[in-house]
Amino acid sequence: MTVAPPRPPQSQDRAAAVRQDGLVPPPLKKRRSPLWARLTVVLGTLLMLGSAAGLVGSKMVIASATGAITTDDLIGDSKKSSAGKGGDPLKGPIDLLLLGVDARKRWAVDDLRADTIIVLHIPASHDQAYLVSIPRDTHMQIPPFARSNYAGGANKANAAFFFGAQNGGGWAGGAQLMAQTIKANTGMSFDGAAIIDFAGFKSVIEALGGVRMCVKQRVKSRHMVWVDGKALFLAEARKTGKPTKPVVHEVGCKNMEGWEALDYSRQRYGLKNGDYDRQDNQRQLIKAMAKKASSSGALTNPLKATQLIKAAGKAFVLDTGGVPVQDFIFGLKGIAANDLVMLRTNKGTFAGNGAGQETITPESMEMFKAVQEDKVGEFIVNHPDVISSEK
C-alpha cells in the first residue's frame, strides 16, 4: 500500500525542499482537535487534559486537574538543555521519550524492563507529530549509572530500564538510564518523558466503552486464558485449578474491551515480524483510543473528560522537563487530529546480529539524526517506506 508523505511543517524552507523533490504538500486539514486526541494511550492524563484545554480554555482548570499526576525527573542528564540543544521546548522542536512497562502486582518495582520504547517528535512548527519505535531487543551499549551502582555494559535496549531501577533507582532511575542509553547510541536527547503502565490503561479503555481494533494476523495469547468464560492471566488461572481455554485473537475488526485490546497489543510471539508487528498493533491502539475519545463525547463533556483523567492518572509517571503541565498542554493544542505519523525503525523487519539481538540499519540511524536536527519531514520525503500503514 502506498502511503502519501505527511503534511510538512509550515515553513518556507520546508516547502521549498518538498518542491525540489517534485512533491506537492497535500492541502491543510480544516478540522482540528487537541493533541491528546491522538496520543491518549501514550501520554494518558496529559493528553486527556488537552481536551479540557480545548473545552474549558482555562489554565486554572487544567492546573487543578493535574494535581493527581505523578511527576518525577525521568530524563536526568539527557535533557536537551544539559546537552546544549534546544531551550524552551514550547518554542522549538519537542522530543519525548515514552516507555511502556507491564507493572503487575506480583512484580517488584525494580524487576521490570521497558518493553515499549517510543520517541515522540514534534517539529518546531508544532503542526505535526511523529512516533518512532525503538526495538526492545536492539543491541546497545548501556553507560555506567551511579544512582543504581550499575557499571555499564552491552545488552538489549529494554534492559537499561531494569539496570537503572536497581538498588533504589526505581522507575525514575530506570527511565534516566534508558534516556542516557538512547542518547549514547542514537544521539537523540529529550525534553521530557512518560512511563506508561499499560496494564493500568485497562480502566481508561473501559471508561471509553472499549475501542475498535483490527487484527491483522491470527495470534494466540501468551499471557491470558479463558476460565469459565472469563479472561485471566495465566498465573491467576492456575490458582483456580479449573480447565482453561486459550485466548485467540482472530483476524478481523471488532470492538474490544480493555483487557482484550491490551492483550492483543502485547503479543509478539507467533506474529510474522515479531516485535515490529507488536509495535504496529500498539500504535493502532493509540489511534483507536484517540478515535473513540473523539467520537464518544469526551471532547464536549467535561464530566467524561474528568473521569478519563482520573483513570489515566493512575497509569503513568510524567516529566515535562520543568514546564508546568498546563503550559505544556496549551503550547501543543494546535496540532491537528490526523497529524500523527507512525514511523518504523528498520522498516519493520528484524535486523539481527546473530546473537538474538538487533542492530540499527544505516537508514534508521539517518532517521534518528533527522529527529535530532528536526528534519523528519524531509527524511520521509526521501524514505516514504518508513511510514507505518494503519491498515
From TrEMBL:
<feature type="transmembrane region" description="Helical">
    <location>
        <begin position="35"/>
        <end position="56"/>
    </location>
</feature>
<dbReference type="InterPro" id="IPR050922">
    <property type="entry name" value="LytR/CpsA/Psr_CW_biosynth"/>
</dbReference>
<comment type="similarity">
    <text>Belongs to the LytR/CpsA/Psr (LCP) family.</text>
</comment>
<dbReference type="Pfam" id="PF03816">
    <property type="entry name" value="LytR_cpsA_psr"/>
</dbReference>
<keyword id="KW-1133">Transmembrane helix</keyword>
<protein>
    <submittedName>
        <fullName>LytR family transcriptional attenuator</fullName>
    </submittedName>
</protein>
<dbReference type="InterPro" id="IPR004474">
    <property type="entry name" value="LytR_CpsA_psr"/>
</dbReference>
<keyword id="KW-0472">Membrane</keyword>
<feature type="region of interest" description="Disordered">
    <location>
        <begin position="1"/>
        <end position="24"/>
    </location>
</feature>
<keyword id="KW-0812">Transmembrane</keyword>
<feature type="domain" description="Cell envelope-related transcriptional attenuator">
    <location>
        <begin position="113"/>
        <end position="294"/>
    </location>
</feature>
